[in-house]
Amino acid sequence: MSKERVVLRVENLKKAFGDKEVLKGVSFDMKEGETKVIIGPSGTGKSTLLSCINMLVTPDSGQIWLEEEEVTSAKNINKIRQEIGFVFQDFGLFNHLTALKNVMVGLTKVKKIEKDFAKEIAMKELTRVGLEREANMYPAQLSGGQKQRVGIARALAMSPKIILFDEPTSALDPELIGEVLSVMKNLAESGMTMLVVTHEMGFARTVSDEIIFMEHGHIVEQSSPEEMFKNPKNPRTKEFLFKLS
Ligand code: ADP
Ligand code: MG
């Protein structure tokens, strides 16, 4: 698979809330099929960065491109948002809808896909995350791990160019984390382009192509998992990884 085509490019992105500078000039890119993990202390701007990528938060300056399209100057941001999957820490499911309907809703309401076809796509993605038998259950009847897998199926159903994950397993009981990480690992192996904020170092080490260490609104270090774990260059990275181990 080609890992050369750039799917996402972020260039000198800055964002402040009031007088608090949260992103202080962040630049990186994502190639097709690549999985990148962002690690770093809380309050460092990781969620803000992800939210800027689909313009849920408007950056103050800098540019974002999704393939050839500049997101930061887009006239039709809703069209671009359809191409960027988002998996949230708290799942973000509609509690009054079944798993199947949760996955279908973006297809029917946003993409205006006819109901039977939307159902077919949704079932395919629920099957991919191992939830074909739970299709007609409501979120309240599902475990946290199952809810998050519905969240992933919902993102997949839109055929996004990239999926952003913001601490997808942080809200889960420890025994449910593995099933979600395993689905994500399969996705990464299938060639999906994925940008994942997580504290799961095992996932970072074994699944990612590259790790970004972010602190205080800066990318401090960016390298392969081997480099990052065996030979972190920056003292801040060393300290962060040391605290985790
Ligand atoms: P992380 O995801 O790395 O924990 P965040 O991006 O959530 O960090 O937050 C970075 C900083 O920005 C924090 O100090 C947070 O309080 C602040 N922040 C985030 N969103 C907002 C907002 N909508 N309004 C004001 N401050 C915010
Ligand atoms: Mg966060």
Automatic annotation (TrEMBL):
Q: Name one GO cellular component term.
A: plasma membrane
What keywords does the record list, in alphabetical order? Amino-acid transport, ATP-binding, Cell membrane, Membrane, Nucleotide-binding, Transport
Q: Pfam families annotated for this entry? A: ABC_tran
Q: Which SMART domains match?
A: AAA
Q: Which PROSITE patterns match?
A: ABC_TRANSPORTER_1, ABC_TRANSPORTER_2
Q: What is its main location?
A: membrane
Q: Where in the cell is it found?
A: Cell membrane
Instruction: Report the superkingdom from the record.
Output: Bacteria
Q: Its membrane topology, per UniProt?
A: Peripheral membrane protein
Q: Where is the ABC transporter domain?
A: 8-241
Single GO term (MF)? ABC-type amino acid transporter activity
**Stated family:** Belongs to the ABC transporter superfamily.
Its protein name is ABC-type polar amino acid transport system, ATPase component
Native source organism of the sequence: Mesotoga prima MesG1.Ag.4.2
